[in-house]
Specification:
By secondary structure, the protein is an alpha+beta fold. The protein has helices at 3-6, 24-35, 64-72, and strands at 7-8, 15-19, 40-46, 53-58, 62-63, 78-83.
């Protein structure tokens, strides 16, 4: 485990999470709950795929666990999927 795999790194690349919800209203609840975390810049919902995904962008280092706990409080799961490439070739 590294800083990059265990955290959402600040900047435009963000971190992708998958979730077990099938409901758009639950996706909006996830967005609202995550946006309450100090340092979260925005949450982008991706509802066109299955399982549904969301991307979290931050302005400071935030642990994946903090996001997972916020989603867990809603009775749902959030699993970090990956990060955007930092460099485009």
């Amino acid at each position: 485990m590294t800083v990059i795999t265990e955290n959402v790194i600040p900047g435009n690349h963000g971190r992708i999470f998958t979730t077990n919800t099938t409901s758009d209203s639950e996706m909006n609840a996830i967005k609202t709950e995550i946006e309450k975390i100090d340092g979260v810049k925005d949450v982008v919902l991706i509802t066109e795929v299955f399982p549904k995904e969301f991307i979290v962008h931050t302005i400071k280092l935030i642990k994946n666990d903090d996001i997972e706990k916020a989603v867990s409080a809603l009775g749902l799961k959030a699993i970090p999927k990956g990060i955007f490439p930092l460099f485009q070739l």
